[in-house]
TrEMBL record:
This is Ion-translocating oxidoreductase complex subunit G. Belongs to the RnfG family. One of its GO terms (biological process) is electron transport chain. Its cofactor is FMN. It is a single-pass membrane protein. PANTHER family: ION-TRANSLOCATING OXIDOREDUCTASE COMPLEX SUBUNIT G (PTHR36118:SF1). Its main location: membrane. It comes from Imhoffiella purpurea. Part of a membrane-bound complex that couples electron transfer with translocation of ions across the membrane. It comes from the Bacteria. The keyword Translocase applies.
Length: 217
């Protein structure tokens, strides 16, 4: 009798343990999915902010490739989202990294239209000094809006610098390193897209046949 009671208790405890583990697993999966959904929606809003309204009818977050171009894009692996309207390429949106920010790397989101002009630039994350370098955030200033419509010919390459260095872009009072680094990173992104030509805009099946990264060539 005593043995049966022990076995029954063990069975009950085992069932509770199994149920508890299953509940934790299901809850964890639901939370992870919710986080993923929120991140997806947040990214969609960021893309919409740097692209012309109604410019695309595809989902760039599902139509992307990963390239390797540390010298120009600041990191070993960079996402490139392709924006299309029907079969026509509209833009590419890249996630370059500014490796030489004042307080550490700065992650950007840069849209380059098919004609080589900038659709816009946004800062995804940074560690710049509050009240100084953090003015690269659109919530802190409109500085980042200066990039819209610019290209490698407007201004010319030698003018892709802050005004203190003889360029056309504003710097911040007391903080020149941050805007200087961002301007250079955006310029390098434009150079990369120009160097790659239409390969970045090709459908995934075609792009997969050619190395879109080409190691900065």
């Amino acid at each position: 009798m005593k043995t049966k009671t022990i076995l029954l208790a063990g069975t009950v405890l085992g069932a509770f343990a199994t149920s508890g583990v299953a509940l934790v697993a299901v809850t964890h999966a639901m939370v992870d999915q919710r986080i993923a959904d929120n991140q997806y929606q947040a990214m969609q809003r960021k893309l919409a902010a740097i692209l012309p309204e109604g410019a695309s009818d595809n989902d760039p977050l599902r139509d992307y490739i990963q390239v390797e171009a540390r010298e120009l894009l600041g990191t070993d692996a960079t996402q490139v989202y392709r924006v299309r309207h029907g079969d026509d390429p509209v833009a590419v949106v890249l996630e370059p990294v500014v490796p030489d920010g004042y307080a550490g790397p700065i992650r950007l989101l840069v849209s380059v239209m098919h004609d080589g002009t900038l659709g816009g630039v946004r800062v995804i994350s940074h560690h710049e000094t509050p009240g100084l370098g953090d003015k690269i955030e659109e919530a802190k200033s409109d500085w980042v809006y200066e990039f819209k419509g610019k290209s490698l010919t407007d201004p010319p390459p030698e003018k892709w610098a802050v005004k203190r260095d003889g360029g056309e872009f504003d710097q911040f009072t007391g903080a020149t390193i941050t805007p200087r680094s961002v301007v250079n990173a955006v310029k390098n992104t434009l150079i990369y897209v120009q160097n790659q030509g239409d390969r970045l805009f090709e459908p995934a099946s075609e792009a997969a046949e050619q190395p879109a990264g080409d190691k900065d060539r």
